[in-house]
């Protein structure tokens, strides 16, 4: 029964987009890996068919099994090579076998097919004959691309150099190439297996789809920077960020699932990551104004999504289920937008990468469009001009990935940048208006800054506003420290300078006290007297 329990656990993680199926199987350290992998893989292929059988027979209600355990048991009972367990579990499943077989037979009659394979969705059948290349990211924390290539050549692989076009990624046997866009990614034939290879076990290479490497590659945080990986597990992108930073700086990684975070800690240890600060915490509850994150300038946000871009999780829903699908997409998009808006609240943020492994515009372009409307202080950065698949119009600055055009899983990436980084002082008030309640507030009028005073009292007052605006801000001059991005009043180095500023901002007070004017007059008189005395002495 241990086989089925472990298979159900891995199947659930794979379908919840918690890792690649093969990696989950090999990381389980199950005694008979090949047997486990075959069971999980085949159950996964027939997942939608098995679920229909289980629902039709009301098996869960009668057996109290969980859906993923029921799937692996029903697969082996009806489609596989028979149940490999005994006792009560086998007796229970045998009791329902006749009804389960009857439903399977009716499905074949309805679709006019004779083989179980013919019941598979067209998308699954296509993928059987059109497998993606095996992508490997070289972990530069432990080795170099050159050394990894040399080791692989000595191990019997044949290196063909850097790819020049997409067709170069069609490889056979033990041939491999360097990717044409990402120099740290090596490409092998689909059936190449590295799970037992020394380079993988030692953490010198990471098994990661090329599209999944894009977010960290495009964010490109410099060594020594502070950044956040908002929804970090299982950790491949986190280790990639650490490699780009050369393990210098602070990498805050959040995830709400404690088990996934524990698995991630093991992965990061194997990869040689030392700059991480892991937290079992909901990113939406992280305080952007906490002193701990005052220097965060980069964020990678890869939130929960439908996973519709994953080859093994392609949507296969009937028209009757479309309403449920749309409702789920709307719920996910709402969550993703909240995460994106929250990420833009970090005060020193320069750049944020937003990515999903979804093919749906509701989770991609629609979310980014809504975010930009609500945060006019940020703009899209155009990415990799030579990349073959762009975001849907008008967001062509973004990237998309797909099996057909990029030979990867389906993916989406957008890079948002703060306007003020361009050094335009006139744009700075827009940056401070980056949290409007409604989209309509993005079109700020001259009166609107007063609405935002409670959030950024000093930053707004120093953003190059008219002479009248500072008078509004003077009521709370010390509520927050001066913004480092302020241009006109950045010096403010001494108390005397500050007092002079207050005099300028409070003309009424200056008029009420004529002392400064009298002092200047006396000084001029003394200087004139000294000059006259000097002249008389000369004479």
Q: What's the mean pLDDT score?
A: 79
Q: What is the number of helices?
A: 22
Provide the domain count. Answer: 3
CATH topology (level 3) name of the largest domain: Rossmann fold
Biased composition (Basic residues): 517-531
Active site: 357
Binding site for S-adenosyl-L-methionine: 231-237, 255, 282, 302
Protein name: 28S rRNA (Cytosine-C(5))-methyltransferase
Q: Could you please describe the fold and organization of this structure?
A:
The protein has 539 residues and is α/β, with parallel strands linked by helices. It has three domains: 1-120, no CATH class; 128-207, 2-Layer Sandwich (Alpha-Beta Plaits), CATH 3.30.70; 211-316 and 325-418, Vaccinia Virus protein VP39 (Rossmann fold, 3-Layer(aba) Sandwich). It is 44% helix and 11% strand. The protein contains 22 helices and 13 strands. The strands form two sheets. Strands 6, 7, 8, 9, 10, 11, 12 and 13 form an eight-stranded mixed beta sheet that branches. A five-stranded mixed beta sheet has the order 2-3-4-1-5. Strand 3 (175-178) and strand 4 form a beta hairpin. The protein is elongated. Residues 421-515 have low confidence and may be disordered. S-adenosyl-L-methionine binds at residues 231-237, 255, 282, 302.
């Amino acid at each position: 029964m241990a086989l089925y329990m472990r298979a159900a656990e891995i199947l659930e993680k794979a379908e919840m987009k918690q890792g690649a199926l093969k990696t989950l199987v090999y990381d389980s350290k199950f005694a008979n890996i090949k047997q486990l992998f075959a069971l999980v893989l085949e159950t996964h292929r027939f997942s939608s068919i098995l679920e229909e059988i289980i629902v039709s027979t009301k098996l869960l209600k009668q057996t109290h099994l969980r859906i993923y355990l029921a799937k692996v048991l029903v697969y082996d009972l009806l489609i596989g090579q028979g149940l490999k367990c005994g006792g009560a579990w086998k007796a229970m499943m045998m009791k329902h076998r006749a009804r389960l077989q009857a439903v399977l037979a009716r499905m074949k009659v309805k679709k006019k097919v004779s083989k179980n394979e013919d019941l598979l969705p067209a998308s699954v059948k296509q993928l059987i004959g059109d497998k993606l290349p095996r992508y490997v990211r070289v972990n530069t924390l432990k080795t170099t691309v050159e050394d990894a290539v040399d080791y692989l050549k000595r191990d019997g692989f044949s290196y063909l150099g850097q790819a020049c076009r997409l067709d170069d990624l069609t490889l056979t046997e033990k041939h491999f190439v360097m990717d044409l866009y990402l120099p740290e990614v090596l490409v092998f034939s689909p059936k190449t297996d590295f799970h037992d290879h020394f380079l993988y076990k030692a953490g010198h290479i990471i098994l990661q789809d090329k599209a999944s490497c894009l977010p960290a590659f495009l964010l490109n945080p410099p060594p020594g920077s502070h950044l956040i990986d908002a929804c970090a597990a299982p950790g491949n992108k986190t280790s990639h960020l650490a490699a780009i930073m050369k393990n210098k700086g602070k990498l805050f990684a959040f995830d709400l699932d404690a088990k996934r975070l524990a698995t991630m800690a093991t992965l990061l240890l194997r990869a040689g990551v030392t700059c991480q600060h892991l937290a079992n915490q909901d990113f939406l509850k992280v305080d952007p104004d906490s002193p701990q994150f005052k220097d965060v300038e980069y964020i990678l946000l890869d939130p929960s999504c439908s996973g519709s871009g994953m080859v093994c999780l392609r949507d296969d829903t009937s028209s009757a289920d479309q309403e449920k699908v749309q409702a789920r997409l709307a719920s996910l998009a709402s969550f993703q937008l909240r995460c994106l808006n929250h990420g833009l609240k970090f005060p020193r943020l320069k750049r944020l990468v937003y990515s999903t492994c979804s093919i749906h515009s509701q989770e991609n372009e629609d979310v980014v469009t809504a975010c930009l409307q609500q945060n006019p202080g940020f703009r899209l950065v155009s990415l990799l001009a030579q990349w073959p698949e762009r975001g849907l119009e008008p967001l062509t600055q973004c990237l998309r990935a797909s099996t057909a055009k990029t030979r990867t899983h389906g993916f989406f990436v957008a890079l948002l940048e703060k306007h003020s980084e361009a050094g335009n002082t006139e744009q700075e008030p827009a940056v401070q208006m980056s949290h409007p309640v409604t989209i309509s507030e993005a079109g700020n009028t001259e009166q609107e800054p007063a609405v935002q005073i409670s959030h950024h009292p000093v930053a707004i007052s120093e953003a190059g506003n008219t002479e009248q605006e500072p008078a509004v801000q003077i009521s709370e001059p010390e509520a927050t420290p001066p913004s480092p991005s302020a241009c006109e009043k950045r010096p403010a180095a001494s108390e005397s300078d500050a007092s002079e500023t207050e005099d300028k901002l409070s003309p009424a007070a200056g008029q009420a006290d004529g002392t400064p004017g009298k002092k200047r007059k006396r000084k001029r008189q003394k200087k004139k007297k000294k000059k006259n005395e000097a002249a008389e002495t000369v004479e």
